[in-house]
Amino acid sequence: MKKQFAILIMIIGIVAGCSTTSKTFDDENIIFKVVDTQSNNELKLETIKITNETGFDLDNLSLKISYPLDTINTKNSAERETVEIIDEFKMKSSETKDFSIPLTLNENIGAIDLEVDFKGNVVEGNKKVPFEIGGTLSALVEKH
Question: For residue 78, what pLDDT is reported?
Answer without folding.
Answer: 66
